[in-house]
Description:
Radius of gyration of chain A: 21 Å
Strand content of chain A: under 5%
Oligomer: homodimer
Largest interface: A-B, 60 and 60 residues
Distance between the termini of chain A: 60 Å
Helix content of chain A: 55-70%
Number of strands of chain A: 0
Structural class of chain A: mainly alpha
Order of helices and strands of chain A: HHHHHHHHHHH
Number of helices of chain A: 11
Largest sheet of chain A: none
Shape of chain A: flat
Amino acid sequence: MATTSKPAQRPRDPLTRDRVLEGAVALADERGISALTMRNLAEVLDRKPMALYHHVANKDEVLDGMVDAVFGEIDLPDDSVGWKTAMRQRAGSARTVLLRHPWALGLMDARTAPGVATLRHLDAVIGCLLDGGFSIEMAGHAVSLIDAYVYGFVLQEVSLPFDTPEETHDAADAVVEQAGDEFPHLAAMAARYVLQPEYNFEDEFHFGLDLILDGLEQMVAAG
Amino acid sequence: MATTSKPAQRPRDPLTRDRVLEGAVALADERGISALTMRNLAEVLDRKPMALYHHVANKDEVLDGMVDAVFGEIDLPDDSVGWKTAMRQRAGSARTVLLRHPWALGLMDARTAPGVATLRHLDAVIGCLLDGGFSIEMAGHAVSLIDAYVYGFVLQEVSLPFDTPEETHDAADAVVEQAGDEFPHLAAMAARYVLQPEYNFEDEFHFGLDLILDGLEQMVAAG
DNA sequence: ACCTGAACACCGTTCAAGT
DNA sequence: ACCTGAACACCGTTCAAGT
């Protein structure tokens, strides 16, 4: 049997910056980023709004901290499995984490500076690639390429207007019916690919990731 | 000599949905997405706030429309140059447009459904790839991969805390000084790569794009 | 058809005050 | 050191009304 109230709240020992950020992430996950107001956040933490300002400068600092907290959840690359496997695992972890906090990528353009979790992650990734035989330039190329792909893929995934295979099916159906004349290629793709029972958007993720990792491997092997 | 006032405003003929969206894009470009309020937008359009609701249902519809308007600015693929060149040009156009409206990608996760400009663009891209010999499955893979890369790259680009090469240099300098001990690989990359005079973040874009297009070309050639 | 005024239930944040 | 009350200048949006 647990103690008193909801987890991670422990209502009345003094607030900390970390507790504020933790509450903000939980609130955004549960009720959407638009419900993340300083006033709602204070209520969840069982304080009055002004109490928050003792621990963070303003709402922007909360948003910055939330993004960094999310990046801190992503697994660091495993140094013992070779760069390619390590990058594949890390990319999968990043996707999982970013889908769990679907508001995070939309906050990136509001972020003023990368946080320490973000920098630590980047440092570990670069180290893993250098260990794997990448030159410093190639490691720079690789990080930018892999991360762009992962972020962009998840951005498409969270902005898709459906969350389940059934909804995907219905949406594709609607495209075929509504817009088959105006957008024939799109309709063909919906009918002959997306609507097939074996279609799974997640498989697209691995297709692109493998193409990228194979391409990098060839370039590294070629020197 | 122009007529009376600022362009695209023409203060007093009746508002239209398109004029509302045009004003919203201009306002977000000039003063940032946080300045985009229904009240500010009404002022720019020389109306009272409530006038907007005669042309759009609510603010969410404005945001959806803005994203679709931005997608409408991206060049459609050129059917006469081969799929690879067409995709390279289109990706470059998308990057340019998305950098011109840096708030657009951050709005994607709030979007409820793709608009017609987005669908038209996607349709043209699929058509271009099918013409180039892609199967419907390969075209699906290719669209998802290329678009993920372009969006993700630009997302990194707009969230970088600097806008000019000079600022990049200063920021990299700061990383080396502040965090050289804690993040040695990052510091090495900053010192030995990013801080070199010939470094240019834009070149990273072409590196990754070419790797992706070459990989796709090999797969298509192999059947 | 198109626009407006007044009002409601919210925001983030300042400033001065309480323990 | 940590928290609060009252206030200010904002939000998006409803409803009823004006031309």
